[in-house]
Amino acid sequence: MSQQSPTTGRVARERFGTTPAGEAVEAFTLENAAGARLQVLTFGAVVRSLLVPDAAGRLADVVLGYDTLDAYRADGFYLGALIGRHANRIAYGRFELNGERYQLAQNNGPHNLHSGPRGFDKVVWQAEVVERLGAPALALRYTSPDGDQGFPGTLRARVVYTLTAANELVVEYAATTDRATPVNLTQHSYFNLAGAGRGDVLAHRLTLHADAFTPVDETAIPAGSVAAVQGTPLDFTRPRAIGERLHDDHPQLRNAQGYDHNFVLRGEPGTLRLAAHVHEPTSGRTLEVLTTEPGVQFYSGNFLDGTPGKDGIPYARHAGFCLETQHFPDSLHHPEFPSVVLRPGERYASATVFRFATADGLTG
Question: Is 188 a catalytic residue?
């Protein structure tokens, strides 16, 4: 089914599959007036595809994904997924809150990653086409019951994806709870600005607006400190190819098997500000990431293993990169980090903008 958006642009809706529990999964395709297209699944609030132009005006899909619902259900890489209740790692899957102890799944070695085996990326969201920022938008809602994946409280979460006329993907998050609970939502799309499946991303030139990062141990858990990027391979304060120092013999790169680090962003958390800029020289495409979050996890696709993606094309190591805007990993054990605890009467609100454009440097 296709319909005209209440604003400029078009929205198409189709069946994508059915879960073993009999839940219908739909795919919504948003197209703006410039011809860019975004497809979102109700399963996992997944960004399945995003077509934006290169410097010659040619469209290509710049996010990694799969062709079938079964592939998303089996996915362990979180391709395109909405992550919650708590993105990133919680040490040993346990925490204490208001005098009570909670144990979560240990699904990443001894630690909890992205909330466990059935986080927000593995559930069906309720979707509604809405008008937002003068552009087609999709609002998705999910109610996470008390005890879900071991977390306390009933959490009501909402995310709105908007594709603006300026080729921006705007992601706005909101949540409320009836008991104190950790909340740290993010979007886990893997980008390849040359086009999904078109080689690795090591020649992409990355700038991060961050002078510091949170070092991790050999199990990828932050030590609680904040360290300067200057003089390390994690210094992206000026444009640098992702692959330029990826294989340096540095303890942080050894610990994470590449880049998989939280960067402390400049500026005031809660205000929308520039976090990252990426340029792919062959296509001329650029990506700017703006966020209200205090940090961004830069991940260089270290664990992609050749699993087939869309059109059966294998996604090998470094086939995509992630820029996961977030609060810091394992903040529950580090009171010096910004708090991830949401309490009754409070409203979680966060926004991230993925802004696509083109720049000089087209070579083919």
Answer: yes
pTM: 0.96
Q: Which amino acid is at 267?
A: G
Q: Is the peptide bond before 156 cis (omega within 30 degrees of 0)?
A: no
* CA neighbor of 350 nearest in space, from 10, 127, 151, 84: 84
Report which of 299, 297, 352, 289 is spatially closest to residue 328, judged by C-alpha positions.
297
Domains with residue ranges and CATH for the chain: 2-358 (2.70.98.10)
* Cβ atoms of 198 and 225 closer than 8 Å: no
**For residue 71, what is the enclosing H or E element?**
helix 69-74
Closest CA relative to residue 141, chosen from 168, 120, 164: 120
Task: Tell me if residue 186 falls in helix, strand or coil.
Answer: strand
The tokens describing 342, both together, are 């949401």
The DSSP bridge partners found for residue 59 are: 53
Rounded average pLDDT over 108-129: 97
Marked catalytic residue, from 168, 280, 293, 324: 324
pLDDT of residue 360: 60
pLDDT, averaged across the chain: 95
Annotated catalytic residue, options 86, 111, 188, 318:
188
The answer to whether the CB of 26 falls within 8 A of the CB of 11 is no
What are the pLDDT digits (tens) for 18-77? 999 999 999 999 999 889 999 999 999 999 999 999 999 999 999 999 999 999 999 999
